[in-house]
Structures are given as structure tokens and as C-alpha cells.
Specification:
single chain, about 70 residues, two-stranded antiparallel sheet
Length: about 70
């Protein structure tokens, strides 16, 4: 018996960066988050700098412009 599985890479819908977390909302409805301290660059950035990012490609990644 064959089973067909539709495997797709997770794609980013939008993101938000708080004082403590990087929160990503995915196209498939999931939300994931990691501690801000995991990104040394963002952890040391100002609040204004943290909000200056762009989604690259078709939601494949985030590029911070700091």
C-alpha cells in the first residue's frame, strides 16, 4: 500500500519581536517563538532596531536590518 504525504516547508506569514521573544506566525496557522537572547544581535539592539526587519522570499526567512 502506498501513502501520499504532502510535505511543505514552513513559511512565515509575519513576525513580532517583543522585549523577551521572537514570535513567528506561520502560513499554516502555527505560531512559534524563541527567547530573544538566542539572537545576540537582536538582544543587544534597541527597541526601534528590533522592529526593522523584512520577510525574505516567499516567507522563507527574516532579515533584520540592523
Amino acid at each position: 500500500m502506498n501513502t501520499v504525504v504532502n510535505v511543505t516547508e514552513p513559511r512565515l506569514l509575519n513576525a513580532r519581536i517583543t522585549e523577551d521573544e521572537i514570535i513567528a506566525h506561520l502560513v499554516d496557522g502555527r505560531t512559534i517563538s524563541v527567547p530573544l537572547i538566542w539572537s545576540w544581535r537582536l538582544a543587544e539592539a534597541t527597541e526601534k532596531q528590533r522592529q526593522h526587519f523584512e520577510v525574505i522570499g516567499d516567507g522563507q526567512c527574516i532579515h533584520c536590518l540592523i
